[in-house]
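Hi there, hope your week has been kind to you so far. It would help a lot if you went through both lines with me. No rush at all, and the record is pasted right below:

***
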Amino acid sequence: QGLSEEDINVLRVYCSSSIFLGALAFSFFAKGFSGSYMKSMSTQIERRFEISSSVVGIIDGSFEIGNLMVMILVSYLGSKVHRPKVIAAGCLIMSFGTFLSVMPHFLMGRNQIYHGYFSPHCSKGIISFLLQISSSESCFQKCKYVFPTGCEKVASSYLWIFVLMGNLLCGIGEAPIMPLGMSYVDDFSKEENSAFYIGNKLISCGMVGPTLGFLLGSFCANLWVDVGMVDLESLTINPKDTRWVGAWWLGLVICGAVSFLASLPFWFLPYSLPKEGDEKNLNNPQSRFGLNTQLSFPDFLPTLKKLLGNPVFLVYLLLTILQYNSMVGLITFETKFMEQQFNVSVSRAIFLIGVILLPITILGMFLGGFIIKKFKLHITGMAKFGCATFIAAYLLNLLYFTCDCEVLQVAGLTVSYSGVKQSSFPKNNLIASCNSDCSCVLNQWDPVCGDNGITYMTACFAGCKSSIGTGKNMVFHNCSCVQVEGLESGNSSAVLGQCQRESCTKTFPYFLALLSTCALILALGGTPTYMIMFRSVSPDLKSFAVGIDALCGRILGGLPAPIYFGALIDQTCLKWGTKRCGGSGSCRVYDTKAFRNVYLGLIAGLRAGCCFLYITLFILIIKRFRPASNELIDLKSTEVSSRKGSTSVSKNETFPCAKALAANEETCL
């Protein structure tokens, strides 16, 4: 009561804009939460379905395929559709896709820790066999490794397709959130507030999602996949073992529920909002609906030609593609790299990314948006700032190669049975004189660590003849292949699990500090670089430009990067696991030096190209948006002459961009 109709309209618009910003920030949180969780679970999915890293890359790339299917259509028609409701529908599709990915867990049954069985005359199973003590005159393991009958009927190996299809649906649902949401915000907000809303309220708040997603991933990775269904005390492996499978499915249930909640507010929001500062003029169509950005299908090719004809946007597009490649490849295999290189469990690697790396990135994004607003950076200032921060981060990135770590010493793979390191890793020297009469199974991987610090593929390959203890505490004795100075041959022992590499553990804090510093510097220039796209295209093409940028980044960066990263990483594998019914499974041991060179080398090469494109982009922006010195002199002379009435041509007619530049408007092309 007591409020006029205009005041009520202003209040209604203010509430709607605040609700939209809050709902959009939560949708950014939901997609970041779900996406980061899936990234953190890539190793667990690889082990659960016994697939290679390249197949994991295909599953990861299915998200980008989903984006590709609808991104360009959503972005092009963004001004014609009810953007809040389209975003709501996208969140629902994300929720459905996440729940679809969970289905294999309930179809596959319990996970088998070991993927082979021993013949009945030896024992009833591998676990019970390990609890027995064989004859002291024979090697510890002398059983025939056989596969169960009817394996050709087992279809669980192909259930990863459910995860692929679910991830594809998540990509479809995520497609409208960024282009439609950001264009909606940029339409109703003032120019000086746009970067603040996008950088601080949306992107920065949305980065909380990945942080919590990685924390959830760390928690689930530390739980056994069949949590609540098996006696955890009976397990003979721990989360550091390369055969450990975490409860990957549990977090997906939570992610699906969050995506569903994110869709609810958008159903109640209006088609559009008036520009900030013009809330009372609701009857003005230009004010009510923002800029007239209605496009039609016949205008598609001319519009695309106009957009790609802008050299600043074209270079920015190439820069986005290379950055996507390096970033997606880095994030997808970062936890695997930490595990193999620094002897860190996957759950701990995920946790450290969630509590250290991502909060630092959020801080950098926040500071980047704040710097734009505080210093009112012109597009040239944004380009200079983005270029400087990226080059600085790239130079620091080269220091990653100094984080050296020794290759895991595995008898017969990386070192000889006498402990001599091998220059190459042949696969035909696993049998030595100390275990030649043991009939060891070549495709089995149940590692034990000898007293000499060397890992053996199984207790059989170590030549062990007896054991004491149960479960994780089992110790093998009388190991003829474990040679230790001061002890007679055959009197050494071994314990379950592979040996630790102390030198790797010591270099890990240095690597983590370097990684965090690079992330902060890159994030500082992230928001200014992103705003270059908005300021370099005409206002009616903002939504379309965001869509084309995201589309090209997805199809040429997000889609191929995890596949070729994974395929090259697979080439560094030294020992593959074996599926229950035969065939190659996931990798157990990598050549860590080759892994490091491939992984870090690819990232460094892609970012070197980004440095070149950043410099090119900066030069183009300087030439296009800053008037030459002689023009400035002519401007002054024109002003003087116009004051004296000596000329009839105004400065704005002579120099059409002069007024825009004087007003600090960057959209003049």
Observations:
- The first helix runs from residue 5 to 40.
